Amino acid sequence: MMKEKLLLDKQLLEKQLFWIDISYKECVKIGIKDKYSVDEFGKFETLCSRYSRGIDFLIRKIFRTLDEYEFENQGTLVDVVNNAHKRGLFESVDDLRIMKDVRNTIVHEYIEDELVEVFEEVLEYTAQLIQIINTTLKYIQEHK
To answer: What global pTM score does this model have?
Structure first.
């Protein structure tokens, strides 16, 4: 039963990666600017949303599913992140914390001008998120 859950979550993670990657590539082409067209802003806003959902899905769903699958203690979110780090799914717990903080900033920014200030960080950390997702997918494939 846990194996089926893990495989289903893997498929959902692949779908997340697909959409994050599309938005990331579009925004890399746009680059960081002082002013954005409506279309450009919309693409960055979409990336921000996909980044936020992706980081949440990875930590709250995938990392927890891996803990369940590997019979780890179902502890706090900090425990889940530490277990994922021990599996070698990402290099730095501090970087993952920053990525989560960027997600929180996105979710709590309601003013357009404030959101623009996050675009550069989102581009930087989306690249890391894509790498972590790919590493996690490879880990799941090797350990299922």
So the answer is: 0.93
